């Protein structure tokens, strides 16, 4: 590893920048370091694959329950997409101004100092990221096992669900350890495969609208409940979780000053477009009350519209969850790597495999912590609580971006956003106006039973 990785007496904010400069300017091919192998397409697919996980199958019910009308529901979905896009633009500036891996952790540590970075690092790497990854693995396990337990009175055993989740995490760990190229190939394939069924749902909705199924769009704001707007918005933002994941692997992205902003904007715009149109499609067949009463909105819609081909929905959930898991392990393991490189974890963890050029110890440690979380019964409660902590640090990073403009006005900024946009995303992160996020356990299966 480069000398910049060793501990020095300089401030940690300087060490981060020196690491990146060393990695970009060192022309010695024999140096073992993370390789810039990710293209802009890979970046788009990583973000899309992580965002489209379980959220889009959970959140629609919470949004409609919050605002109650069709028009307000669609407006909330559009608003959540705009808020997420504003956040991505701010992170595009942060990622090109501080071109180091680590995402929010790196930005907090560089701008506000070592202690703030340390708190963010441990909250994210020990609790938020691995617990969220564990839930995704458990959802993947449930949908893989349910076909073998068709009797609703005899669900898959709790032990079987958790062991299959461990198997899925282990497989994703192996792929991530083997090579970044194999990981991104799998991620790209899964992202494309999950988009195809979602597009089928969208097209079916457009066809139904063309056939006259527009009753739910007449007087779309008639029964709007403004008081539930905060809860509805939080449900939508839950579906966009992972929008900042590409910033965690900045050092592996080719030409990040150009490709990072492009990948963030394209991926989030694509997901926002898909999410909004899917909800439009739902309302061509389901009324707001029917949607709220459904335990699996996408499957209920597909049964009415696609008939026997509704089987694509469970398949889509399987693809979505494993794609989300694979991409999340890719990004979260890099946060471990950056923390070990700075000194918030033992330095020996900041080592890279000579053959495969992947941070093997960090991938393995991240996966082990995720596996441990699979056996924690109250994981959903913990995720809901620490979700607020995660959004708090998102807001702090955006504030830090504005502060850095005044603190270091001469720092190179290949990409800049209007400061008003930063104010908008920070206001949306205020916890005062947000309700509880949707719990994945309320979708259609309780992992703690069986």
UniProtKB/TrEMBL annotation:
GO terms for biological process: amino acid transmembrane transport. It is a multi-pass membrane protein. Residues 430-450 are annotated as: Disordered. Keywords: Cell membrane, Membrane, Transmembrane, Transmembrane helix, Transport. GO terms for cellular component: plasma membrane. GO terms for molecular function: L-amino acid transmembrane transporter activity. It comes from the Eukaryota. The chain crosses the membrane at residues 38-58, 70-92, 104-123, 159-180, 192-211, 231-250, 262-285, 305-325, 363-383, 389-406. It is found in: Cell membrane. Belongs to the amino acid-polyamine-organocation (APC) superfamily. L-type amino acid transporter (LAT) (TC 2.A.3.8) family. This is Y+L amino acid transporter 2.
